Amino acid sequence: MENLSLLNNIKEEYQKNRSIFIPGHIIRKIILSLKVDPADFTKLESISNHLISDPTLPFRKTKTGRFCFNFKNSTIERIEFQPFVLSAEEDFVRHDSGKTRCFRGIGDDLQLNTVFQALMMIKAYLVSDVTVAPRPKLNQDSHQSLCTVFNLRTVTTPILLGEPSLEGVHSDGADHTMTIFLGSKNMSSNSAKTFVHDMKQKNGLNHNEIDRSYVLKEIQHKKFLDTLLFVDHERKHSLTPIFAQDKTKEATRDMLIMLTRKPVEDGHISFQYDSFLPHREIPLTFNMIKQ
């Protein structure tokens, strides 16, 4: 593919620094070299209009999908629905920690979008063969990884504050986390600042409580496809809330979140929900970028 050297430079920086922010115009340049349908960029910007209410957060709309990164045969495959759970033991401290959550699945409108597929291909390429601090009870010898995709809209209204990380400082129980900006409306310039923290930062602290000496990076997703990638078990993260520019109107922020990890082993809280069987109703398989 064209721009493979650019992608390799990004991967080299990621391996060295354990986190990297990639501006949207760079991501777009790489995506275009993957022969996508240009019309799918516009479709992706509005995809979050079809989300539904989140099961535990009143200020969020959500859909999810589970995909298998098979690094042995270089494919990405949609796999069947499973409930989702994150625990305090995985550095996720919130009122619904350890609670089984069931999200509505993403449909063909997203999974068949060629730009979305390209984003998954880019992530698979960037994380392949990158050694990370091993999470407990993950099968480190597996050639497969689970990629859970969240399409999220965080909403602030005159009576409700939208918080992209209500849980404060946390990790997502993954090996690699990638966050991609799709767009926003009526959002103030001081909204949704992302802080990447040293692991010494205490879990659960909100943006007003964090120890700034443990902040390794501060970024903001501002433009379409702005992307942050970090090693989730070596870096914690948190965000500031969504503030409305016009406080009398609704403000929104739309994202794609891709959480990638090895399969879990017996004794992990997600063990009974870690199927890698193909999705029967809306199957999908496509190839990774050739190394």
From TrEMBL:
Pfam families: 2OG-Fe_Oxy_2 (PF10014)
Alphabetized InterPro entries for the sequence: 2OG-Fe_dioxygenase
Protein known as: 2OG-Fe dioxygenase family protein
